[in-house]
Amino acid sequence: MKTAYIVKAYRTAIGKAPRGVFRFKRPDELAAETIEYMMEKLPEFDKSRIDDVIVGNAMPEAEQGLNVGRLISLMGLKTKDVAGMTVNRYCASGLETIAIASAKIQSGMADCIIAGGAESMSYIPMGGYKPVPNYELAKEGHEDYYWGMGLTAEAVANQYKVSREDQDEFAYNSHQKAIKAQAENRFQDQIVPITIDETYVDADGKKKTKSYTVTKDEGPRKDTSEAVLNKLRPVFADGGSVTAGNSSQMSDGAAFVMVMSEEMVKELNLEPIARMVSYTAVGVEPRIMGVGPVKAIPKALKQAGIKQDDLALIELNEAFASQSLAVIRELGLNQEVLNVNGGAISMGHPLGCTGAKLSVQIFDEMRKRNLNNKYAMVTMCVGTGQGAAGVYEFLN
Amino acid sequence: MKRTINKVAIIGSGIMGSGIACHFANIGVEVLLLDIVPRELNAKEEKKGLTLENKEVRNRIVNESLNASLKSKPSPIYHQDFASRITTGNLEDDIAKVAEVDWIIEVVVERLDIKQKVFENLEKYRKPGTLITSNTSGIPIKFMNEGRSEDFKKHFCGTHFFNPPRYLRLFEIIPGPDTSKEVLEFLNDYGKKFLGKKSVIAKDTPAFIGNRIGIFSIMSLFHTVKEMDMTIEEIDKLTGPVIGRQKSATFRTVDVVGLDTLVHVANGLYENVPSDEAHDLFKLPDFIGTMMENKWLGSKTGQGFYKKVKKEDGSSEIKSLDLNTMEYRARKSASFATLEMTKTIDNVEDRFKVLVAGKDKAGEFYRKNFSALFAYVSNRIPEISDELFKIDDGMKAGFGWEHGPFQVWDAIGVEKSVEMMKAEGYDPAAWVTEMLETGVKSFYTVKNGNTYYYDIPQKKHVKIPGQDSFIILDNIRESKAVFKNSGVVVEDLGDGILNVEFRSKMNSIGGDVLDGLNKAIDLAEKEYQGLVVCNDGKNFSVGANIGMIFMMAVEQEYDELNMAIKYFQDTMMRMRYSSIPTIAAPHNMALGGGCELSLHADKVVAHAETYIGLVEFGVGVIPGGGGSKEMTVRAADTFQKDDVQLNRLRENFLTIGMAKVSTSAYEAYDTNILQKGKDIVVVNRDNQLAIAKKHALLMAENGYTQPIRRKDIKVLGKQALGAFYVGTDQMSAGKYISEHDKKIANKLAYVMAGGDLSAASYVSEQYLLDLEREAFLSLTGERKTLERIQHMLKKGKPLRN
């Protein structure tokens, strides 16, 4: 088996949806500009040597439809020669694409693949425009296969007895960590500046255009407190505990890595950042999809041949505070190394982009902490009862 | 010259100013709402680093008042979207814009010096010819225009709205010394036709008509409660719905309005009517002084005559004020033998005779109270009005009384009442005695469908002006009836148009009403041109007679029940499929079956205050009179090629599933109960039937042809059913609905999906009606549905089980 290395990793800032900065930027453009930026960092590189562009996306329709992966390849690389595809495993899509790219290279089917994800929740509603559940399934009592994610978070909170107070405290801490990281400029090396030319109609009814560049994540809130969070009303169940404050934010963003065979890395004299050691996706009961990582994490660790304690950093996607806490408690995850710069509750959760975005973030943080040759994990719960986890070895 | 009102300026954005602004927005007029600039920044503005120069700060007062008003309940506005018709501004930066308006209404604080200053300032910018009026409730109009130009004075008068402006119908127009006749006539007409009000041209006397009599009435009760050693609960019981007044009766109403507001007007009257024979009555009793000192002003300060207190178990209890101890105590229920006797008398008008004949304290109270009221109102003519009907109009439209003082007097009998008054120590005004002497025995009479009042100078009955454009059912019910049964009267409105007037209890729809509708359609198809369904009940209809359904369900007479539902459906379908145009003219509540009837009419001419919806879930069933079918048809009719059709069906599913009831006719367009381009809204309730009739006639004359039965309704089958099942499951898992709600919702889903068809298909209306009936019947076999119906019958409220 060949070795596949990650040699480049970038992401856009994460905008709030549906009223944030990226509502004037289509997801295909966000993705293409991220890839363009990556190419600028490899000025000598012959783009036709890229074998594929694999784009994770959780709601591949409308602006994200029509195999947006191929369109992103055309737009971002500005060549007809590189193929492109779209991959959907909901919130694990962006991690799944890196796994597919690594596996293809390891098996010798490819030498260089751009993998990642893009999602605009400003453009496409959660669940898409026309969710049509299967009547026969629903009739048989499997309506929960189609439950909204918030309701599953309530089910997890009930089943795993995660209190409202604990959820709000977790959410508060997420914001605090993210604000601290922003103050320390911990994200700037990984973020691709995105310029937006917004054409709009002003208060006088005149058409105007303004241009601005986005380099900062929009989600973290300085003004939040546990008291504020405690006041929010549950939004998914009457008398429930899951609120807009202790759930992940809806977001827009894109993130991509370049995966390359050891041979090509040597030939081009590039510095590998990391390699994916293992990746797995598992199935759990759809109604408590949030606990997916409880099953995925041990499996991925076993594949990698390491122990939980070997993980120097963990990014556990904060879909909801309830499921994050349930996972942490069930597995006894070390909170000292988990989501050190905040998570989706404060930073945002652009669904299909998230797995790639968290990978980009974790590489950068490993570098800043000089954790060479240590292991890191990206893991998340996934809709319709799944969990995913990937182990990286950080190299440089 | 024809005057049109496209834009008004309202000066002052307090509760009244904002409320008036909203009501103009309601009728489609563009509004400029202005108030003063704040003198200093508030904490929030300071934190944001704003200065007194920022627009946001300068318009803070007006914006905050308007927003508070828009959020208040009941809403001052027919539809929140209409708020965009109001532009806010401040009196410094935006006052010049009054040059662009057709009417300026001043609603600032009730102080003559301030009002005069405002008018002086407004005159600088006002274009000549622009109407300018004051919404004062007490300041004499003649003092307000001092120093103003001739053009100003000619176009100036008082226009007094009652709070809340959207809901209370009285619109008093008070001429100043120089107001032109054209202006008064215009406002009188505009008030009726455009604002939907009862316009009353009053005289420039203290508190005008409504408040003069209204405050008298309240103040007299303030004294009576002590004199007769009664409790506030007893007075409220005796002065509430039993005599056709609001449920909040006397003391609860004062709590809602605010004691300080009442005291302000009462004090004004005390000062300004020194020669009034009831002058002493306007002096505040001691307990009012104590309440004012204690700030027990009512709802606005959390306590007044009543106080809501939280009990230890978290539930709340309403306590009432004991006027002897001035302490709050548990409420005492009030009961009187005389009231028991009126329980079986549905028609309020018929109760007065019985009430004043009562042998108990209640009888004594009514004799005393009505005697004082009759004497007072008779003596106010000609002081506050030359015509007696204006006093009745004022009390009905301004205070929500079903019957004005002279009407009550008529109901008891004028002569009989005079005897009663004398026994109580009151004398009627001389003109009343004179009237009786000339042989006129009543204040009102009805001739040829018109109401006549006793005109004092002419000493005879004269037709009340302005009613030619109205059709008054009370006046034609006897003379124009062409059919009658226990549930309906069918009246001939002239010009070949019939009206079906519901007369059943709460206007519920049972077998007799359905018979009446069929009979009316039969008649109209044979001998007439069109049909209107309109009535003057408190509500248009509260829905199907669920008592009957309950009985049949409990007895498990499912065949009979099936027949009854089928009869309901067939009758609704006849509303649509007859050879004559049918018009439904709902007002107030039009629920369940009342809504279904409207859904099937060829056109709905709804009063603006129509609260319409399909509320069947509340009694554990789905709409069974064609409502479920019709909402499916309406969704299908909006389907576009390549559209996500399921989402459109979902909206109509939710209209039924969430038992949505509109808070105005305009809101009913949002729920697809009313349809734009077909159904219309009428603002003036008095005019509704006449307008409905005109539409029926127009449709008939335009060559109305019976529609052809439809077989082209697209239903989505399993595609919709799966989505609905998942939706209801989520609602139930999230505890927003009960298991039984889910069962009902899934039954409705089955109907609206057209059943479990493999793919989208085209079906007939009858196919959907059969599904609807089947689902309805199966639900009446459910214990929890029967519990819901029983609860509604007993308590008048839905049960959530």
Describe this structure in words.
The complex is a heterodimer of chains A (396) and B (801). Chain A is built from twelve helices and 13 strands. Chain A is an alpha/beta fold and 396 residues long. In chain A, strands 1, 2, 3, 4, 5, 6 and 9 form a seven-stranded mixed sheet that branches. In chain A, helix 1 (27-40) crosses helix 2. Chain B has five domains: 7-201, NAD(P)-binding Rossmann-like Domain (Rossmann fold, 3-Layer(aba) Sandwich), CATH 3.40.50; 206-334, N-(1-d-carboxylethyl)-l-norvaline Dehydrogenase, domain 2 (Orthogonal Bundle); 336-468, N-(1-d-carboxylethyl)-l-norvaline Dehydrogenase, domain 2; 481-615 and 661-707, Alpha-Beta Complex (2-enoyl-CoA Hydratase, Chain A, domain 1), CATH 3.90.226.10; 631-659 and 710-801, no CATH class. In chain B, helix 8 links the parallel strand 7 (170-175) and strand 8. Chain B is globular, with a radius of gyration of 28 Å. In chain B, the strands form six sheets. In chain B, strands 3-2-1-4-5-6-7-8 form an eight-stranded mixed sheet, sandwiched between helices. In chain B, strands 15-16-17-18-19-21-23 form a seven-stranded mixed sheet, with helices on both faces.
Q: In a nutshell, what does this entry contain?
A:
The complex is a heterodimer of chains A (396) and B (801). With 396 residues, chain A is α/β, with parallel strands linked by helices.
List its salient traits:
A: 396 residues, seven-stranded mixed beta sheet, four-stranded mixed beta sheet, 12 helices, 13 strands, 34% helix, globular, B: 801 residues, alpha/beta, N-(1-d-carboxylethyl)-l-norvaline Dehydrogenase, domain 2, 25 strands, 14% strand
List segments of chain A where confidence is low: pLDDT < 50 over at least 5 consecutive residues: none
Proportion in β-strands of chain A? 15-25%
- Main sheet characteristics of chain B: 8 strands, mixed
Helix residue percentage of chain B = 40-55%
Gross CATH architecture of the largest domain in chain B: 3-Layer(aba) Sandwich
The helix fraction of chain A, in percent, is 25-40%
Keywords (chain B): Fatty acid metabolism, Lipid degradation, Lipid metabolism, NAD, Oxidoreductase
Domain 3-hydroxyacyl-CoA dehydrogenase NAD binding (chain B): 7-204
Domain 3-hydroxyacyl-CoA dehydrogenase C-terminal (chain B): 208-307
Pathway (chain B): Lipid metabolism; fatty acid beta-oxidation
